[in-house]
Amino acid sequence: MTAPPEHSNDEDQTGDRHKARARRTRERLLDSMYRLALEKDFRDITVQELFERAGVARSTFYAHFRDKEDLLVAGYESIGTPTTRMVHVSGHKRVVLDASTWLFIATERHASLTTSFFNSPSQTVILAHLENVLLIQVREHYRKQGFYQSDELRGEVAVRCFVGALIGLWLWWVRHDYPYPATDMTEAFDALMNNGTWPSPIDAS
C-alpha cells in the first residue's frame, strides 16, 4: 500500500497565512472596540462603526463575530485563560485556578478602558459577560478536579460563591480607582479563597 500524500509546504504556508490574517483582523476589530469605548458608551457603539474604524468589510466582521457582544466576549478571551497551580491547604495538595491573577493583572494593564466601561450605562451588560466567562472557567476547573460531578448542587454553590466573591472584590477595586496593586489584590484574595487563611484578629488585651 502506498502512504497517503502529505500536505505540501505550500499548502501549510497558505493555511498559516490565512490564520495570521484572521488573527490580525480580530485584533483590529478588538482595538477598534477599545478605542470607541473610551469615546462613548458601549450601547452606543454600532457594528458599522466597528468595521469602519477597523478598516474591514461588513462581511468580514460577521465572518468572525455574531454581534458586538460576541466581540466583547472575545476581548476577555484574548487575554488568555487562567492558569492552575498547586497549593497546600491543611496539609493536603490542591490544584487551584488562578482566576484572580488573570482578572486583576489584565485589569491593571487596561485600567483606563476598564474605568470607561464601568462608568458607563452599559456596565451591567459588560459585567454580565465577564461573570459568564468566569463561571464557565471555574465550573470547568471544578469538573476536572471532580468537585462538581460528585455533588452538582454543592459544586454549583462553590462555583458561584467563588465567582461572586472575586467579582465583588474586583468591582470594589475598580470603583475605588485601584487603591492597591493588582498583585496585592490577588494575594489577599487567594489567601482567603484558595488557602482558607483569614486575617488575624486584633488582640484586644
TrEMBL record:
Keyword set, alphabetical order: DNA-binding
Gene Ontology molecular function, alphabetical: DNA binding
Transmembrane segments: none
DNA-binding region as annotated in the record: 46-65
UniProt key word DNA-binding: yes
A Pfam family hit: TetR_N
Residues of the HTH tetR-type domain: 23-83
Listed Basic and acidic residues bias regions: 7-17
Protein's name in the database: Transcriptional regulator, TetR family
Organism annotation: Halopseudomonas litoralis
